[in-house]
């Protein structure tokens, strides 16, 4: 589930847009109905505020602050209502608990807590209308009510959407205006103070919540984009390998076609059925070549005309090493296999693995001493490229890579049924080791 700074954020329920009816009265009525609906629809999240924080003390902070505020506001409210306003002790206690205790609920369900607190504040203001008028008394909202209400709005702004906050703010102002009209002689402007301060608190906390939500959505989109890029890279590498292998397969198919076509002329005394069979084999090979060319057209990307050149192999690894040396990377080659005896698919894969490994050395470890080894180990061809730490580790040509080279290596090794082992070395270098199974045995140069 997506996370925000205040906790996990499940998908918000669908809310109808505000009305833009041509009729002013009708639009106002419809919009008021929508705001009332928002007040009845709390956020679906029931997790505590800041529950997604990695720090334990931050996760517990809302509960600690809510408990502290409740512990202070309840006795202070009772003292103020009984001592300053002369209200009955039992009623004062009930109002104090109803106005302050829901702060504990606000940690997880702030909108439900707001309904309780707001109702208790209204009841308290009504109860204080008949109290003796004393200079300096605050009405309709007492100082403890203002403090507790603002703390509640702090939790509310961190959880609920913008329209709900707007509805709460308007209801707060409307209640103060009603009390102002009911008893103008008692009002001291506390309703205006609460209206302004509540607006400030809701704007700040709402902005913080929306900023956190925006960061969450951006992080989620970044994750999706990274996954899409990785998948696209994998598909591009597979398509490129398929285009290269086309030449290998086409060569074999061409050989089959030539052999089937020439068999009746090379072999004397063939029966007619055998001639027809060779003709069918040649026709099937030609059809397969045609289909492969069509497939290659689909796989070929724009600007890939240069791929018409013959595919390289181990016979050209020496040229790769020499080019790497000219690029400023001291490299050595140990070629312990006859390139002509290696199957073409393995030959091409081994060449590309060496090419990608040397390119990574040039990009990420310029000046590092590099060793390239291609040998035969039983039924496998072993390709090993090892480089030490770069002479200038603080100035690589690229500090980060796209990972295209490693993706290509893995795909080529997977294609031949081999294994690939890559990773950093203790001295700061890097190692690429590929083991590619050989379809047919090869003769090592060391064996003569």
Task: Describe the strand arrangement of the main beta sheet, using strand numbers.
Answer: 3-4-5-7-6
What's the helix count?
Answer: 11
Q: Could you say which overall geometry the principal axes of the C-alpha atoms support?
A: elongated
Number of strands: 7
Low-confidence stretches: 1-5, 394-403, 440-448
Radius of gyration, in Å, reads 39 Å
Q: How far do the termini sit from each other?
A: 64 Å
- Class based on secondary structure composition and strand pairing: alpha+beta
How many distinct domains? 3
Catalytic activity: ATP + protein L-histidine = ADP + protein N-phospho-L-histidine
Enzyme class: transferase
Protein name: histidine kinase
Pfam families: HATPase_c, HisKA_3
Task: Characterise the protein shown here.
Residues 1-14 have a biased composition (Pro residues). Residues 237-302 form the Signal transduction histidine kinase subgroup 3 dimerisation and phosphoacceptor domain. With 448 residues, this protein is of the alpha+beta class. The protein has three domains: 3-10 and 17-223, no CATH class; 234-308; 314-447, 2-Layer Sandwich (Heat Shock Protein 90), CATH 3.30.565.10. It has helices at residues 24-39, 56-84, 89-100, 110-127, 143-157, 162-182, 190-266, 272-299, 317-326, 344-364, 404-416, and strands at 3-4, 7-8, 331-335, 370-377, 380-387, 419-424, 430-437. The strands form two sheets. A five-stranded mixed sheet has the order 3-4-5-7-6, covered by helices on one side. A hairpin with a 5-residue loop joins strand 6 and strand 7 (430-437). It is elongated and about 125 Å long. The protein starts with a strand and ends in an 11-residue tail after the last strand. The model is unreliable at 1-5, 394-403 and 440-448 (pLDDT under 50).
């Amino acid at each position: 589930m997506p996370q925000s700074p205040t906790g996990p954020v499940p998908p918000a329920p669908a809310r109808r847009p505000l009305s833009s009816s041509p009729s002013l009265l009708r639009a106002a009525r419809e919009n008021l109905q929508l705001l009332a609906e928002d007040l009845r629809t709390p956020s679906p999240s029931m997790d505590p505020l800041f529950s997604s924080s990695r720090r334990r003390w931050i996760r517990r902070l809302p509960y600690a602050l809510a408990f502290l505020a409740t512990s202070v506001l309840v006795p202070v409210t009772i003292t103020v209502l009984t001592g300053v306003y002369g209200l009955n002790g039992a009623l004062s206690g009930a109002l104090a608990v109803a106005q302050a205790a829901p702060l504990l609920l606000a940690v997880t369900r702030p909108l439900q807590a707001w309904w309780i607190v707001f109702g208790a504040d209204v009841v308290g203001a009504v109860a204080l209308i008949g109290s003796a008028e004393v200079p300096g008394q605050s009405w309709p909202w007492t100082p403890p009510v203002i403090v507790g209400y603002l703390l509640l709005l702090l939790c509310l702004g961190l959880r609920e959407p913008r329209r709900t906050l707007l509805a709460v703010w308007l209801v707060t102002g409307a209640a103060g205006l009603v009390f102002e009209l009911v008893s103008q002689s008692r009002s001291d402007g506390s309703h205006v103070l609460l209206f302004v301060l509540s607006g400030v608190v809701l704007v700040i906390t709402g902005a913080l919540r929306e900023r956190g939500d925006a960061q969450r959505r951006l992080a989620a989109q970044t994750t999706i984009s990274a996954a899409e890029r990785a998948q696209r890279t994998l598909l591009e590498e597979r398509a490129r390998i398929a285009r290269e292998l086309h030449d290998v397969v086409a060569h074999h198919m061409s050989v089959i076609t030539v052999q089937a076509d020439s068999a009746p002329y090379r072999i004397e005394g063939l029966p007619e059925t055998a001639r027809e069979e060779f003709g069918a084999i040649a026709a099937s090979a030609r059809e397969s070549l045609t289909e492969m060319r069509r497939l290659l057209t689909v796989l070929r990307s724009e600007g890939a005309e240069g791929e018409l050149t013959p595919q390289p192999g181990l016979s050209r690894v020496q040229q790769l090493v020499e080019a790497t040396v000219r690029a400023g990377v001291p490299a050595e080659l140990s070629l312990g296999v006859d390139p002509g005896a290696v199957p073409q698919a393995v030959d091409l894969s081994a060449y590309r693995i060496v090419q990608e490994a040397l390119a990574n050395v040039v990009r990420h470890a310029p000046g590092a001493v590099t060793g390239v080894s291609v040998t035969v180990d039983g039924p496998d061809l072993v390709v090993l490229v090892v480089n030490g730490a770069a002479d200038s580790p603080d100035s690589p040509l690229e500090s980060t890579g796209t990972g295209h080279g490693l993706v290509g290596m893995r795909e080529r090794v997977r294609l031949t049924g081999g294994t690939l082992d890559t990773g950093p070395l203790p001295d700061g270098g890097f190692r690429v080791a590929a083991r590619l199974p050989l379809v047919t045995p090869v003769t090592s140069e060391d064996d003569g």
